[in-house]
Amino acid sequence: MATTWTRFRRWTRSDSASGLLLVSPAALFALALLAVPLAAVVAFSFWSQDYLEIDRTFTWANYRAAVTEPIYRELMLRSVLISGAVTIATVVLAFPLAYFISFKVADRHKALWIFLVTIPFWTSYLIRAFLWKVILGFNGVLNTSLQTLGLIDEPLSFILYNPNAVVITLAHAFAPFAILPIFVSLERIDRSLLEAARDLGESRFGAFWRVTFPLALPGVVAAALIVFIPTIGDYVTPRLVGGPDGLMIANMIQTQFLRLNNAPMGATLAVIAMLVVSAISLVFVALSRRWSGPR
Amino acid sequence: MTLRVYAILYLVFLYAPIVLLPIFAFNDATVIAFPLSGFTTEWFRAIPETPALIRSVQTSLVVAVSSALLATLLGLCTARAGARYAFPGKRPVTGFIMLPLVLPEIIVAVALLVVLLALGLPLGPWTVVLGHTLLCTPFAVAILGSSFNNFDPALEEASYDLGESRWATFRLVTLPLVMPGIVSSLLISFTISLDEFIIAFFLTGTEPTLPVYLWGQLRFPQKIPVVMALGTILVALSVLLLSVAELFRRRGLARTGAKDTGGFV
Amino acid sequence: MSIISLSGVQKHFGDYHALRGIDLEIAGGEFFSLLGPSGCGKTTLLRVIAGFEDVSEGTVLLSGRDMEGVPANRRPTNMVFQSYAIFPHLSVAENVGFGLRRAAMSRGEKAAAVEEALGMVGLAGYGARKANALSGGQRQRVALARALILKPKVLLLDEPLSALDKKLREQMQAELRRLQRSVGITFILVTHDQEEALIMSDRIAVMFEGRIAQLADPQTLYRRPVSRQVAQFIGMMSFLPGRIAGAEVTVAGLGRASVEDDQCPAGRADGDVSVGIRPELLSLLAPGEDTDRQLAHGAVTERTYYGDMTYYDVALDGTDAEVTISMKNLPGRAVLERGDAARVAWDARSLVIFP
Questions:
Q1: CA distance A14 to chain C (A)
Q2: Do B158 and C89 touch (CB under 8 A)?
Q3: Mean pLDDT throughout B114-120?
Q4: At the fourth CATH level, which superfamily is domain C2-228?
């Protein structure tokens, strides 16, 4: 019979023990610097601040303010709408490219194409956003070029300092995020499935619609989430190209924390933003499951 | 054929801003607009003459190197645990470590700020390192995870079986096979940290990192050409580092004999 | 003395009970096989012996020494992995010499040992090759040389031939057997291929669901399986309902016969039984052919042609059960068609009785 001691010795050599030991540094790090801070943000959202003094009595006041004051409501709604528009634009634009790389590019060139697509993502986001301001501006690259070419007389003004500019800039910034998951799900499709569909009498388009697209759907869903979630909290792009009508919730959170010294209000807005993002994402995932699952 | 045209147009859209960067960095005018007025290297020469900029570059380098090392170390442990062992709570724990990948950065920044202020800790480069390590770790885990998944666990068992200890096995078998992934993880974490703005903006204190410094300069139109020059250098550096990272990734694949799938499948 | 002695070995993976009490003695110099379908625990048992898995209960003795707490790198066993686990970043010679790193030998002695090991597996002169440039069969030989160079007491082989094509596999089976005789080391082979186990082994343990169902030499295993499960896993066997009383058994469709004790490997008790018979131990008689063997009648329901053999399914008169009969395709032998009447010759000694 194994004694308690030999049982313990065996456990220390087991998968469980080795795995837990190895995962613990990163897990503890994330616990201290993510779980605890997130909990703190939630706690702050129920407190209040008077200049620099934090009052730790429980209050719903911040949430009441967030719901009743039009400025917060409007910013939240606008953030959701802009993120939604960015998500749709990015995913719709990305799908044909991912399809091209997966189905039309020779195997040995695929890695190169993916590399080409990802490079812009790794260059400074700040500078890229600023360059869009330069491109889209009143005296910007686009307008001056079009005027020099004689295509327009007056500079186009609908493309800077408004939500359109924010959508264009963010769609550019998040393009690789959308392409990669779609590409991965397309790559995993067994090519003989398409041949089977054709063999069973489907047209090229029919095979795409009834086989390729449903199988690529998980990638499309992942792409949509991976674009939607971070964009709703974007700060740089609205500030640089959004103008007063293009600001988003992150700009308000920053203002509350660093300008108005109202951390509890900032925390409340952050919590609400997280809740809204999670709720929309969950609904989206549930809908896509129902739609794509076996019927 | 139409798809190919679309793909090329898409690449033009992706690269448009990056291509414009060097054009204006060498343009002899303070206004960023066409037509171009002439060639100059004045803006590049102004870079070393701006002490605040040099300091911010130094801060950024220290932050990026530290974050890359820390994130790769944490990523190495996590990726190995994930690829080799079954342990209770594996999915939720690794999922939680990967969370910063999908969390809006502003939330991470705000959350860290709240705690640091509540604890009364002074902000500085090291607080940025903490934030960036948190942000880079998921990338390190993803890269190293694919390195570990690509190699046969029986290789390590073969080494134990032939009489080597765990540590010797790690040194003789595991490390050489995962090394390309480690290099690639270091380079990518370094690049992310070097470019990251929001977390640095919230946590930087009195010593700004380069992106935070640049952000401050964007308000002054006469400083823009210098920013363009610096941006050109940054982008060139990023592209160089990424190409090296890609090279190592491919060498790693060749070494383990795996099929090249672009590193994401 | 046994070189390996397992008693009461159990292994749990969480809720999964992979080994449910294994007792086993393996002698020095034996070629021993663990045979069973996938998931029967044979690979787990091999890994327990190698030291890659700890036992949950029970003891493992190697040369009489308790292996509790002794890790794989300190055990006198070496393994040939199913994937071969050839180190892709090392050359063939570096792979084969991997285990010699800490040996008290000069550089020259090590190189000579590597060359000798390569020669033993027919790869002399391949030392400088890159491991990635080898074919499947060559990788298998490198894995063998690498494990044998340390002169282990026991060599463990985890489905070493399953990745090879049929011709190469047959060639390697003969070669492995020859190699084992020449080095005299105990080989323990894990396989799901019954033919491979029968060809190569001195003794075979057939495993189902974490238990050893039968442990015997190949002939006994084939001729006298202890259960229908074992009988069906090894070769082909037809089963007929029967009834036993004393030494006499009445078999549906065949008739009466008296059976010896050895024909009841699972023990004899009066009552309903299942009677098994191998296809090659039955024969179909040509029209007009005489026999002094016992005779049964039926009709052919299916005929399958195998080149050297033809297999007939025959429905026997007076029962729902069918038997399968294999006949060598000799020149001039008549071929029966579906629906033809069949006369079946059989012997009492060919029957195996299962409770």
A1: 8
A2: no
A3: 84
A4: P-loop containing nucleotide triphosphate hydrolases (3.40.50.300)
- The predicted pLDDT at position B262 comes to 44
Check pLDDT > 70 for residue B263: no
Cβ contact, residue pair B85, A110, below 8 Å: no
3-state secondary structure (DSSP) of residue A212: helix
CATH number at residue B159: 1.10.3720.10
C26: pLDDT strictly greater than 60: yes
ipTM higher than 0.90? no
- pTM for the complete prediction? 0.81
Strand order, beta sheet including C322-328: C283-284, C341-346, C294-305, C309-316, C322-328
Query: A interface mutation test: which of B98, B107, B116 has the most A CBs within 10 A?
Result: B107
CATH no. for A70-292 = 1.10.3720.10
Strands C203-208 and C31-35: parallel
Query: Is B166 among the domain residues?
Result: yes
**Residues of C with Cβ-Cβ distance to A13 under 8 angstroms:** 54, 71
Partners of chain B (3+ Cβ pairs below 8 A): A, C
Looking at CATH, the fold of the domain delimited by C236-354 is given as OB fold (Dihydrolipoamide Acetyltransferase, E2P) (2.40.50)
When CB atoms are compared, the residue of C52, C82, C99 closest to B162 is C99
The closest of A168, A183, A170 to A95, measured between CA atoms, is: A183
Q: Which of C52, C101, C132 sits opposite B157 (nearest CB)?
A: C52
Q: Where are the beta strands (DSSP E) in chain C?
A: 2-13, 16-27, 31-35, 57-62, 65-66, 77-80, 154-158, 186-191, 203-208, 211-216, 238-245, 248-251, 255-258, 271-277, 283-284, 294-305, 309-316, 322-328, 341-346, 352-354
Residue B28 near chain C (CB below 8 Å): no
